[in-house]
Amino acid sequence: MKPEQILPYAKPWILIDDMQYEESAGWATSKKLVSSSDHYVRGHFPEQSIYPGVLLAEGMVQTIEAVLLHEKICMKLVEATSRFLRPAVPGDEVHFVVKICDRQADRWVCEGTGFVDEQQMIHSTMTFAK
């Protein structure tokens, strides 16, 4: 599934490059290739460019937003907590895995993890509600 065909944003604000959704299993995966040409990277710690952590968390949020829009469910992010374990740098391909842990008619609670080369770099818990 192509995020730009579902999400109501335009590049450069779509922060995932590709995604898959397995409805029966209750999880979605997406990826983001961090490039030195991403304008968020330039100037963010100029001595060592890194991809801003808040944008990593937003990539996981956009993954679930795409699932919600695909299923025609109207919910918005109401709460999120994230733990950053290591930075993403240009050249990294970040793989997000987001699991829907509690799925109710008016609320979803999701847990997401971001990996680079199988090394965990971010973990988030997100609540979406009507």
UniProtKB/TrEMBL annotation:
PANTHER family: 3-HYDROXYACYL-[ACYL-CARRIER-PROTEIN] DEHYDRATASE (PTHR30272:SF1). Its EC number is 4.2.1.-. GO terms for molecular function: lyase activity. It comes from the Bacteria. It is an enzyme of class 4 (lyase). Keywords: Lyase. Belongs to the thioester dehydratase family. FabZ subfamily. This is 3-hydroxyacyl-ACP dehydratase FabZ family protein. Coiled coil: none annotated. InterPro entries: FabA_FabZ, HotDog_dom_sf.
